[in-house]
């Protein structure tokens, strides 16, 4: 096996993308390229203390900066990009989380309008111990301090949408985007269906950790140093983003209302079992019903995201996505990261 090409990208503040679609590529890469990337946090690094309120230091709608997009040579509609996360490491010793008025699952929002006043703005600064792999919660209104394990992930990974659409980096949909699932951690491979020539892959929105659902709308947001491998599966369609790990296959769905996001993820999992594992549709429906795990990814974004995951050990010994996850794991091991 020849050594993979490695491209290092450290964007300057004016080089981030704020949308999926509508942004020119920052580089053209060949399949098999390793991307060594810096991604800024969702606040573009502007929330640095408890005094830095989002409404005062951030410039709307410029939230959730993305590193990219990357044009993948040979990628065409009907193909799939496979993005393997080799490593996801916080780039700073701190991270920020906030409440944002009219945003989150337990407050009035623009789409769930009520007479109650918005929640007040507040900021929590989390201290990260990158050597010990911990994140320290420090309460604002008491002396409570609780150390939690870090679980770094990327909230936003996606490609350009279909039909000439341009979508805010805050929006999850069939192109990926701001799905905010903790499943997008190191060791996972994300499959994204290509909608335009080159795919136009971008990623950002690093989280040092996040609970399922991202209830208040903001995780432990931090800048990341991330290494990914990008491969191309010709002639393989992926209508909704999928994730494969060593232990699970995982489908995602993003929509409103929440039950439609749930339905999309469950249907995609059923169709995955039919396509790659030899099930009939009804057998897959029955089997998935009794075996699926259904974590919430986010219940706060413009679209909600649900996840449907199934243990590989319970599946027939079949190859999915041409076995690319296992091969990319071998490449990652060879990189020594």
UniProtKB/TrEMBL annotation:
<protein>
    <submittedName>
        <fullName>Acetamidase/formamidase family protein</fullName>
    </submittedName>
</protein>
<dbReference type="Pfam" id="PF03069">
    <property type="entry name" value="FmdA_AmdA"/>
</dbReference>
<dbReference type="InterPro" id="IPR004304">
    <property type="entry name" value="FmdA_AmdA"/>
</dbReference>
């Amino acid at each position: 096996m020849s050594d993979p090409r490695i491209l290092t990208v450290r964007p300057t503040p004016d080089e981030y993308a704020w949308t999926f679609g509508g942004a020119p590529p920052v580089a053209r890469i060949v399949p098999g390229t390793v991307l060594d990337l810096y991604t800024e946090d969702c606040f573009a690094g502007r929330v640095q203390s408890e005094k830095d309120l989002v409404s005062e230091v951030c410039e709307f709608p410029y939230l959730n900066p993305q590193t990219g997009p990357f044009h993948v040579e040979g990628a065409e509609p009907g193909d799939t990009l496979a993005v393997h996360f080799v490593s996801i490491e916080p780039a700073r010793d701190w991270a920020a989380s906030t409440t944002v008025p009219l945003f989150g699952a337990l407050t009035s929002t623009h789409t769930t309008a009520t007479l109650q006043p918005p929640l007040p703005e507040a900021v929590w600064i989390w201290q990260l111990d990158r050597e010990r792999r911990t994140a320290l919660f420090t309460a604002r209104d008491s002396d409570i301090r609780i150390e939690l394990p870090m679980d770094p992930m990327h909230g936003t990974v996606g490609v350009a949408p279909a039909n000439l659409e341009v979508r805010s980096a805050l929006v999850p949909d069939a192109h990926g985007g701001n799905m905010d699932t903790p499943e997008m951690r190191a060791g996972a491979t994300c499959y994204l269906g290509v909608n335009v020539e080159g795919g136009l892959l971008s990623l950002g929105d690093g989280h040092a950790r996040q609970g399922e659902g991202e209830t208040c709308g903001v995780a432990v947001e931090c800048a990341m140093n991330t290494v990914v491998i990008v491969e191309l599966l010709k002639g393989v369609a992926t209508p909704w983003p999928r994730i494969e790990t060593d232990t699970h296959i995982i489908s995602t769905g993003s929509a409103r209302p929440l039950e439609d996001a749930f339905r999309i993820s469950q249907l995609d999992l059923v169709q995955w079992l039919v396509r790659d594992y030899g099930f009939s549709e009804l057998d897959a429906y029955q089997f998935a019903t009794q075996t699926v795990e259904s974590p919430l990814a986010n219940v706060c974004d413009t679209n909600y995201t649900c996840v449907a995951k199934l243990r590989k050990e319970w599946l027939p010994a079949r190859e999915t996505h041409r076995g690319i996850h296992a091969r990319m794991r071998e490449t990652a091991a060879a990189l020594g990261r």
